[in-house]
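Weekly sync notes, structure subgroup
Attendees: PM, AL, DS (notes)

Item 1: joint prediction request from the bench team. They want all two components modeled as one assembly rather than separately. Inputs as received:
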Amino acid sequence: MNDAIRMTIDEVFDTTKELLLVQGFSENHANAIANTVTAAERDECRHHGLFRISFYVNSLLAGHASGTAEPTISDLAPGVIRIDAKRGFSPLALERGYAPLIERAKSQGVAVLAINNALSVSALWPETERLAEEGLCSFAFVSAAPYVAPAGGTKPLFGTNPMAFSWPRPGKYPLVFDQAASASARGEIQIRLRDGKPLEEGWAIGPDGKPTTDPREALAGAQLPFGGVKGSSIALMVELLAGPLVGDKLSFESGEDDKAGTGAPCGGELIIAIDPARCVEGGDRAAQLAHGELLFSAILEQEGTRLPSDRRYQARERTAEEGVMVPRSLYENLQSLKSGVKKINLQAYEGDHVLAKQSA
Amino acid sequence: MNDAIRMTIDEVFDTTKELLLVQGFSENHANAIANTVTAAERDECRHHGLFRISFYVNSLLAGHASGTAEPTISDLAPGVIRIDAKRGFSPLALERGYAPLIERAKSQGVAVLAINNALSVSALWPETERLAEEGLCSFAFVSAAPYVAPAGGTKPLFGTNPMAFSWPRPGKYPLVFDQAASASARGEIQIRLRDGKPLEEGWAIGPDGKPTTDPREALAGAQLPFGGVKGSSIALMVELLAGPLVGDKLSFESGEDDKAGTGAPCGGELIIAIDPARCVEGGDRAAQLAHGELLFSAILEQEGTRLPSDRRYQARERTAEEGVMVPRSLYENLQSLKSGVKKINLQAYEGDHVLAKQSA
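Output from the run, pasted for the record:
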């Protein structure tokens, strides 16, 4: 059962797009989601790749997501663009937002994109990388289902609440980091439950509020923020930015909204884009970027360091040649979805309840 | 020698302003710095209060800082204001920046303030709190002298690189956090050296790159980021925002620039201010802030939690009644500076070299 099928990057895209169309997504959504899933597989971010297809399809079948809603765009201020995703998944909303956000960031110096009512199950590095390719420095913030206790507390309240940041590099892939405010990914806890392995210390507390390394206790209790109080502050900031600031849900409200238990939170996302060339007298972007390179060189001079995203970019080079390896069970599930079967193979689904069922 | 003198908040301000004038600061700078020092004492952030006066005066006497430079302001884009502090301390530059930044954030929805050539030895919460009092959500980023190794590395490169964030609260002090990207404050390591106490694990590495709990080894080696790789990413982000983005120094360049070893880095600061009411359709600020309060209530319902800054605000209420206790040696040093003595009492100075001397 551990064997795997090799797929080329093009096959990943074609399979994903076709099955999404068959399952009822519109051409626009199928295309945008397939691009996002393919980018994740290409960079070997497998949690956000083909494994995620179950979230997309489950949410559609459960009536939690729209597969056809066309995002609408509005101008809230010279520096603020809003996109209403209307309960569609975020990739199409983002695709519609790039051009106006980039235009505003360059004309105003700084601009924000407020996305509402979007289902988010993808990573944040694609949008920040895209903005950096346009020469912009950018941030992205999104909240999630409530899994993480605030520092000092004992109950889940915050989402894993990732934030991403990007900085352009001349002639190179941009510098990007995309990191959860939780000490570990939730998927990693689920995988350790499946594999019967303990967690690292500091990742979680049990339902009694006490530290635990037992994955089952952790999933029934709460994850912890990274870095204690400071990581908890970051999680709190992300809640405010992706929620009240853009007039959208807090993580616990997204959890309540997900009545079908799909694990795909519906809520807001905030993106901030800044044009470096508008932040200095005379605007010499090349000099600013060269200055960034000086910092990166000084980091890499130290043995044992690497830049955020370097592993992703190495994977990208490799998978362009070699394709990606997909577990046979997942591959077969994709084929089944493509043939029109309107049912998720639960073995391929990462959600807590499924893993809990497997391990019960 | 451990006795202390009680000073009222007004006395802190008057003493500070007078001694700064006597030492050669202009009326404008003396006033702005005295406000900043007084706010820190009032909130019992003693590292940034009267103890810091040695940094201000030392830097002036060493010719590292200007005590009289008038900051100049320029418009770089509809959403970008620049202030050149001309090697003056940051409080006056900030004071000049608030009005235009607030006006732009409200008219554009989002705006940034890029500060250049400012000496920064104060905290970042005063500026973010001030912006939140105007109903804005804000971020501030500043780099510092190079003390912190990148994750995986062994040599100091990043500053302790604080970032601050604020969110307005109706009828209450704003929610503000202001936290270094290092695992501990440098001052805390210095204090443990003085007191002969070990450090916590994970704070630092020695000159050999190995973990240490010895304060002397730590000061000769490097501090570590909080939260491992994720905190290191935050430190890297702050370096880029306060340096290349605004066309100013990286931490290691600020270190090289500080030829007199004053410990007061000269460089950039970036502030981002967003008007929540411009980020939602219809702009109902009251509803957005009420939504934030819902989150804060949910946090505080959990026993063991508190909101960032709550301790500062409690101190603020207390010191308004009781004043602050100032160590006699520091108090006497302040009186001596006020009487015109142009020499720092090194016993009151926190810099590494002084503590190293004390403990040698």
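Discussion: The longest strand of chain B covers residues 80-89.
Action: AL to compare against the crosslinking data before next sync.
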